[in-house]
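Posted in: Structural Biology > Protein-Ligand Complexes

Title: Requesting predicted complex, glutamic acid in pocket

I'd be grateful if someone could produce the 3D structure tokens for the following input. Sequence and ligand are given below.
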Amino acid sequence: MDLKKLASRLIPDENLPSLEDCEKAYPPRKLKEGAEVTRLAPSPTGFIHLGNLYSALADERTAHTTGGVFYLRIEDTDEKRKVEGAVESVIRSLKYFGVNFDEGAEIDGENAYGPYYQRRRAPIYRAFAKDLIERGLAYPCFCTEEELDETRRIQTEKKEVTGYYGEYAKCRNLTEEQIYAALDSGKPFVIRLKSQGDVNVKHTFRDAIKGSITVTENNQDVVILKSDGIPTYHFAHAIDDHFMRTTLVIRGEEWLSSLPIHIELFKVLSFELPRYGHTCSLMKVDNGTKRKLSKRKDPELSLDFYRAAGYYPQAVIRYLMTILNSNFEEWAAKNPTADYKQFPFSVSKMGKSGALFDLDKLNDVSRDELSKLSPEEMFAFLKGWADEFGTEKDRAHFENADYIIKILALIMGAGAKKKRKDIVRAEQGVRLMDYFFDDTFAPEYSYRADNETVNKMLEGFAALYDENDDNSAWFAKLKQAAAGAGFAAENAEYKLNPEAYKGNVSDAAEIVRIAVTGSPNSPDLCTVMGILGKERSIARLNSAKR
Ligand code: GLU
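-- Reply #1 --
Done. Output follows.
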């Protein structure tokens, strides 16, 4: 058979690049020894999940700890699954978590190894498919969906492996006449690999994450170009990872079963096989059993969940680091102030099977991370959340940066020995500040003292309050007002004769605290009143009377 003629008939494009041109256009990268080139290769389906971030972080750390390159490639060969805005959403989501690409993320721009959208690389795939046909390593298949279904049915019935191989590969040995007759009659066709593999042959393969594994040779004549001339994932990824000079492919373990196909494709294409690392799935414990995180059942699988819920991005990343490399936690404990980027990340230390993702643990990391922020950093984080997910009032409050930073310094315990360690998410932080604003101050005046005592205490303290008093002067006046309202000014006195008083000083302070903050618990009241200002503080004391 004249294979050159056949190839031209099947792929008639005249302006395809030559294979040498492709090699020249995408030369090996000039990087230092040991530098890894990694990529994230999502399909633009609009759902970016924790597994993507987990892989992306492994990719990004691997590239950037070795002086390599981390790029984004959009695997958009399946038009049906494409969702508008999905690419922007991947880039924005990862950026939020501090995971940035070196190449491929500029929507309009292209870097040296682009285009990074597979649909724009069609001539390259077609050139290589044409070459395989010319070399007798690929052929046209005219089987219809119904015929393939029927084959699958027979194989299932006989309990045989399903697929297009061996005697089931009907179009593999079509004669020249049969092929041209089918083409002349306008039958649609796909291009299949003419597999040279033998399933009785097994090889040992070194997976960068899973270690030594056994792979069986491929014997499936997989589709490489679909009937619309667009490549399948198998074919496109092989060509792209070669020409984008990927050194390490990190991808989900669901691709492990396709590895034999990929090994054969690289072989027939005469490309050097990159290293592969297959990541384990993220699991959770549900009712005592471990299961994979599911899109349907677990909102925490979606990356949008963390943004909307107001998780601090660094906390999510640091928690993922603890799952990625089991020695991260120990390192972080030894280097409490170090950036996670200083950690010597290694793919070989990644878990081989089911990584447990536990929201409670994430919350612990989050508390810890947020407690380390300065009031200014906390302000920036909370404002970011409020701008996107907060109420209109929240957004208005955040206009006043100085005021909020003062509040944050107080509620986070900045400068104090013991820092506040209970804020897990942005929303909680924002709500903690509500009482500092009149439009969100929603007090419940539930006093333990009788109304007359409450009023006496509040009036007495309002009359004495001076915003220029320091903490001890403030307290002295509180005692004075307490005595005037029937409380014991000194605890010792109260202890000697509790019956003679309405209560002790802290009972008196509680009345003022409820009046000013709406709650019996608050940070240092003198400072709270200082931040609120005299006018607002006095107004609150007055309106809290019963
Ligand atoms: N487009 C594939 C996916 O989204 C990429 C797999 C890979 O990383 O090679 O699953």
